[in-house]
Amino acid sequence: MATKKAAKAAEKETKVTKVTKAAEAVEEKVEKVAKKAPAKKAPAKKTAPKKPAETKVNFFVEFGGVQVSIDEVVANVKATYGKDAKEIAVYLKPEESKAYFVADGVESEMDVYFC
Q: Does residue 26 sit within a domain?
């Protein structure tokens, strides 16, 4: 019996050794392939196209020898409307000294003083 047990133990040891060697061989092959395979490059970062510099515009309306800045008219329209508007359309009539405007769909008017 001792001989059978010793034979089985030797057989198991041989199988374990073969499996271990096979696993080592597979690991070596994987390492070789990994070394040969080109490294994957990270995709190039896309840069946003450059926006052109915003042009500063100074716009004035002149009537009767007097100027009014459009920025001033728009600021007064916002003050007259009383709250922030998402969209404003201004119709300036210098001969009446009036600005008619539509702010977020609400129509109104205001006086514009050409001083």
A: no
| 106 found inside a domain | yes
User: Per the domain annotation, does 15 fall within a domain?
Assistant: no
Spell out the per-residue pLDDT of the chain, length 115, in tens: 567 666 666 676 676 566 566 667 767 776 776 666 566 677 777 777 888 888 888 899 998 888 999 999 999 998 988 888 899 999 999 999 999 999 999 999 999 887 6
The model carries a pTM of 0.50
Per DSSP bridges, beta strands 106-111 and 60-63 are unpaired
Q: What are the distances in angstroms from CA 7 to CA 2, 19, 107?
A: 8, 18, 103
- Does a structural domain hold residue 82? yes
Q: Which domain holds residue 104?
A: 60-111
